[in-house]
């Protein structure tokens, strides 16, 4: 990096995200968003889940145009970029390989430092992206419920680089529970947003599904999926068009069950830690039922709630860039020999 104290200068960070099925690139000036380009991969829709090899191929096709579009939309020149932040993990090995290879190549070609970002940390640090909206940012320490397709974690965040997992799922992630239940209903992947959509017209108390019994701050969602599966099997035997006739009510009830489980442990964590600042992050934090329930509960319990704008809930490179920015400030640079990590603790 050029001379002078880092904190006194503007830093342009290019973020690159390719851990799952979104190819994304973003440019930030410090924490200020200049662009955030996301190419979704429609190819997985009919398979009921992400097909890793197809994801890698789609990343390969999309990644250079997406990066160029992000730089173009940011109104900056390639030569002005000061650092490249990329997702090193966790995620799909082949998908991560594409992003990390491109990030390393650009780092050599442009002679700029590289920063390796943990995707789960980035989901949380998405709260610190500045995009001219009037929202408030959490201050430290705060609790974050990170709910995505692959993870469900309760994280105690002490500063930009100190994250402690105090609870997590022992089987399926919350997003996985949404997607698997959606699949049982014959909905396309990813089913979470579709359950959300149909749930808005349904009665959340129409059907009751078994509640998981897990001690402490951990979660479990595989039992819910099984209970939905047997429930649907029995009802469809009695009436073959049961799902079609009751789709809204089933979706609302499934969503209600997942939200209640998430809420219960989050409140327990707040009680046990005495922390009153609560944040959510990850794809499932886009869920309207979860957002509404949390808003109501936070008011009742006098908690301060932080919900990211929709654009930064699901996978995006702006969160990678903002996480990278804070690492640049700490001079936590990476090297070319770091291989992608399919599994990587927060
Ligand atoms: O964070 P994310 O984009 O990717 C991972 O890192 O996994 O999360 C994707 C997950 C999927 O399971 C998707 O169904 C879920 O987030 N999701 C939703 C909603 N939007 C995305 N689940 C429920 N309601 C939504 N509105
Ligand atoms: Zn994610």
Note down, in words, how this protein is organized.
The protein has 346 residues and is of the alpha/beta class. The protein is built from nine helices and ten strands. It has a five-stranded mixed β-sheet with strand order 3-2-1-4-5, sandwiched between helices. Helix 1 runs parallel beside helix 2 and helix 4 packs parallel to helix 6. The longest helix has 32 residues. The chain is globular and about 65 Å long. The two termini are 27 Å apart. The model has no long low-confidence stretch (mean pLDDT 96). It binds 5'-O-[(R)-(carboxyoxy)(hydroxy)phosphoryl]adenosine and zinc ion. The site of 5'-O-[(R)-(carboxyoxy)(hydroxy)phosphoryl]adenosine (KG4) has 19 residues, from helix 4 and helix 5.
Radius of gyration: 21 Å
Number of DSSP strand runs: 10
Low-confidence stretches: none
Strand adjacency order, main sheet = 3-2-1-4-5
Which ligands, by name, code or SMILES, are bound?
5'-O-[(R)-(carboxyoxy)(hydroxy)phosphoryl]adenosine, zinc ion
Category by helix and strand content: alpha/beta
The share of residues in helices is 40-55%
| Distance between the first and last residues' Cα | 27 Å
Number of helices: 9
Shape: globular
Largest sheet: 5 strands, mixed
Order of helices and strands: EEEHEHEHEEEHHHHEHEH
- Percent of residues in beta strands: 15-25%
**What would the average pLDDT be, to the nearest integer?**
96
């Amino acid at each position: 990096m050029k001379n002078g104290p880092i904190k006194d200068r503007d830093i342009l960070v290019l973020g690159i995200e390719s851990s799952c099925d979104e190819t994304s690139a973003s440019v930030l000036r410090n924490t200020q968003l200049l662009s955030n380009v996301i190419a979704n991969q429609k190819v997985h829709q009919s398979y009921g889940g992400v097909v890793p090899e197809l994801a890698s191929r789609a990343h390969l096709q999309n990644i250079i145009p997406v990066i160029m579009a992000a730089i173009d939309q940011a109104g900056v020149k390639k030569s002005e970029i000061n650092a490249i932040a990329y997702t090193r993990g966790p995620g799909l090995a082949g998908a991560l390989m594409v992003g990390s290879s491109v990030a390393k190549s650009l780092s050599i070609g442009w002679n700029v430092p590289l920063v390796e970002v943990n995707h789960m940390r980035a989901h949380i640090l998405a709260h610190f992206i500045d995009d001219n909206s009037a929202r408030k940012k959490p201050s430290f320490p705060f609790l974050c419920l990170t709910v995505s397709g692959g993870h469900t974690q309760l994280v105690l965040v002490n500063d930009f680089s100190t994250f402690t997992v105090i609870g997590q799922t022992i089987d399926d992630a919350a997003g996985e529970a949404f997607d698997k239940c959606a699949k049982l209903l014959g909905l396309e992947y990813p089913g979470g947003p579709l359950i959300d959509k149909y749930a808005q017209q349904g009665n959340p108390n129409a059907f009751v599904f078994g509640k998981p019994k897990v001690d402490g701050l951990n979660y479990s969602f595989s039992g819910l999926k099984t209970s939905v599966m047997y429930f649907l099997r029995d009802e469809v035997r009695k009436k073959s068009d049961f799902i079609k006739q009751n789709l809204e009510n089933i979706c609302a009830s499934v969503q209600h069950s997942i939200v209640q489980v998430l809420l219960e442990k989050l409140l327990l964590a707040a009680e046990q830690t005495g922390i009153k600042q609560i944040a959510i992050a990850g794809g499932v934090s886009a869920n309207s039922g979860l957002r509404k329930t949390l808003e109501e509960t936070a008011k009742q319990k006098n908690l301060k709630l932080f919900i990211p704008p929709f654009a930064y809930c699901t996978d995006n490179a702006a969160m990678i860039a903002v996480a990278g920015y804070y690492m640049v400030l700490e001079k936590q640079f990476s090297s070319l020999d770091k291989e992608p990590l399919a599994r990587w603790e927060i």
